[in-house]
Amino acid sequence: MSAVAPIDLPIDKSTERQLKRGEKAAERTGLRKSKDKLTSRPATIAAILIAVLWTTPTLGLLITSFRPPQEINTSGWWSIFQNPGFTLSNYEAVLNGEATTVTLSQAFINSIVITIPASIFPLVIAALAAYAFAWIPFKGRNILFIGVFALQVVPIQMALVPLLSLFSRGLNIGGVEVFNGLGAGGNSYGQIWIAHTIFALPLAIFLLHNFISEIPHELIEAARVDGAGHGQTFFRIVLPLAMPAIASFAIFQFLWVWNDLLVALVFADGAVGPITKVLREITGNRGQDWYLLTSGAFVAMIVPLIVFFALQRFFVRGLLAGSTKG
Amino acid sequence: MSGFLKWLAGLPPLAQIPLVLLAFIAVAGLLIFFIEIAPRSGRRYTVIRVLVCVLAPLGIFFAVGSIWWAAIAAAVLGALFFVLDYRSKQGAGYLFQLVGFLSPAVLLLLIGLVYPTIATFFKAFMNGRGTRFVGFDNFAYVFGQEANRVAILNTVLWVLVVPALSTIAGLAYAVFVDKARGEKVLKALVFMPMAISFVGASIIWKFVYDANAADQPQIGLLNGIIQFFGGTPVDFINIAPWNNLFLMVILIWVQTGFAMVVLSAAIKGVPAEQMEAAQLDGTNAWQRFTNVTVPGIRSSLIVVLTTISIASLKVFDIVQTMTGGANGTNVLANAVYAQKLEEGRASAFAVILFILVLPIIIYNVRQIRLQKEIR
C-alpha cells in the first residue's frame, strides 16, 4: 500500500499503556539536557554507523542531481571533490521535460490538486461515521464496525478492476441502470479523488473511532442536557477535541496520496497524472538518463520531506495513534 | 455530479481545489444541519424532515444519472424511511440522525470496496471480458505458467524475509539509539525514508545498484566499492534469483524506521525497576536484553511484524519501478496490474493475494472482538 502507515491493529490495554509511556519518555528526552541519561560510547558509535548507512543512498541522489550530466556518467558521486561541478540545468531539463506525456512541473501541480481534496474528503466522512460508531447506540453496531475494520486489510488490488469499470461504464443490474458512470472525461480529477477517499475510509474510521470513543462520557452528556442534538455535539464538542487525531491522520493521508503510484496508474489518465506516475514513466523510457532521474526524484521527494521534518512530532504520534489513542 | 465534474475539469487545476472543497463542505454542513434539527418537534421541522427524506434519495439518483422510475422508487423508499423514523422507538429523528452520520461512509465503502471485492471473486471465474463463465481456467493459467508460479513464490519470500529483517534492524537500532547521544537526530535520519515514496526510494536504490561494463568507471555506489577492491561489477537487478533480495532491501530500508519508532517507544515503556532488578542480579547487557527487554515488548513486536507483513504482501510500486516484474522478480500485486486488460486473469491473481491476506484479517478480527467483549 504505502510507505507510511500508522499502526492499524487492535492492541491490548497493557501494550497500549507501555507505548504511551515510552512515547512520553521519548518526548521528554528531547526537552531535557541529556546529562542524566545513561549514554554509552559503543552504542552511540553503532547508532551513528547505521544512521550513515541509511542516509548515504539519499545523499548520493541529492549530490548527483546537482552535477553536470557528463560528470554523472563518467565518475561516481563520491568523487565530487576530485571532479567538481555544479549545475541547476538538470532540474530545468526535468521540470520542462519533453520525455513524458505531461511535464514534471505540470505533474507537480496535478499532485497538489489531487492530494489536498483527497486528504480532506475522507477525514470529514470518516469523522461522521466514527462519531456514530462511538456515540449513537444501534443494533449491529459492533458487527458493522468490525466489518469496516476488516475492509482495511483487503488489498486494493481486489477493487481496482471493477471500480474502474464502474467509473467509466456505470452499473447495470438486470438491465436496470443503477449508475451511469462519472462520464467526466479524461481530464477530470473526479475519479482519483473518489478512489483515494474510498480507500482511505476504513483506516480513517478505525483510528478516529479509537480517539473519539475515549472522549469522557460526561462531556457528551453535559452537551445533551444543555439541549444540543447530535449535530451540535459533533460539531462543537467532538470535532474540536478530536483535532489532534484528525491532524495526525491528515498528515498520513497527505503523504499516502502524494506518494501513491498504484491508484494513480489506474485512475489518473493522461493530463492529470501525478508526479509519481511521471517519474515511473521516466524510469521506463529514460532509465539511464541519471541527470533526469535524480533531479526528478528529488522534486517528488521535497514536499513529503518538508512535511515530515516540519511535523515530525505529529508524525510519530500519528504512527502510534492506532495504539495510544492520543 | 458528472455535470459538475465536467464543468470543474474545464477550469485551471489550482482553481479546482477551493471550488471542490467549498462544494464538499457545503454538502457536509447541510447534512450536519439537518441531523441537528431532526429530533426537534413542531410542524415546521416535520415538514423539513419529510422533504429531506424524499428529496435526498431523489437527489442521489439524479447525481448518479439514473433513469426516471428508479428515482420514483427512491422517493417511495424515502417516504417509507420517514414513516419508520417517525414511529421509531428511540424517538422521532433517531434513524434520520444515524443514517445521516453513517450513510456517506457506508455508501462509499459499499460502492468502492465491498461491491468491487465481490465482483472480483466472480470475475476470477469469467473470461477476459467478463462475458462467459470459464470455471477454473484462469486459476489453471495462473498455476500452469512457470512465470506466475515464480510470482507467487516471490510474494511468499517477501513476506518471510522483509518483516523479519526490518524488525531485527529496527530493534537493534532502537536499542542502540536508546543509549546514544543525539537520539532525536539519529532517529530522524533512519525514519526519513518513510516519508519518501516507493517510486523515489526505488530510484535512489536503482542508482546504488547501477552497473557499467567492467572497463568503464562505475557510478553505482555498490559497484564503485566492488571496483575499488578490484572485483568485477555485478548487475544487481538482473541476476535472478538474487535480484529479489536486492529489491527487498528497498522495503527493508523503508520499514526499519517504522519498526524502530514503535519498538523504541515500547522499550522506553518497559518499567525501569525490572531493568534495575536484573542488573542487581548481576546479568550482563545481552542477558538483560533477551530476558527482560524482549519479553517486555513481545506484543509490540507482533504488531510490527504483522503491519510489515501486510505491507510486504501488497508490495507493488518497488517492483513496478525497478523491473516491471521482469527477470523473475514479479509479485502478485504487480501481476494484477500487469494483467489488468485480461480481467479474468487479473482477478484470479487478486483472489490469490486475498487468500494470502485472509489469515491476517481473521487474526485481527478475533483480537478486536475480544477487546469489544472486555469493554
Brief synopsis:
The complex is a heterodimer of chains A (326) and B (375). Chain A is an all-alpha fold and 326 residues long. Chain A has helices at residues 13-31, 41-65, 69-74, 89-95, 104-135, 141-151, 157-169, 190-212, 217-225, 230-241, 243-259, 262-267, 275-285, 290-310, 312-319, 321-324, and strands at residues 171-173, 176-179.
Textual characterization of the structure:
The complex is a heterodimer of chains A (326) and B (375). Chain A is globular and about 75 Å long. Chain A has 16 helices and 2 strands. Chain A has 326 residues and is mainly alpha-helical. Chain A has a two-stranded antiparallel sheet. Chain A has 2 domains: 37-87, no CATH class; 96-324, MetI-like (MetI-like fold), CATH 1.10.3720.10. In chain A, 69% of the residues lie in helices and 2% in strands. Chain B is mainly α. Chain B has 2 domains: 2-123, no CATH class; 147-374, MetI-like fold (Orthogonal Bundle), CATH 1.10.3720.10. Chain B has 17 helices and no strands. In chain B, α9 (198-209) crosses α11 and α11 runs antiparallel to α14 (298-313). Chain B starts with a helix and ends with a helix. The model of chain B has no long low-confidence stretch (mean pLDDT 85). The chains are: A mainly alpha (326), B mainly alpha (375). The interface between A and B is large, with 148 and 144 residues.
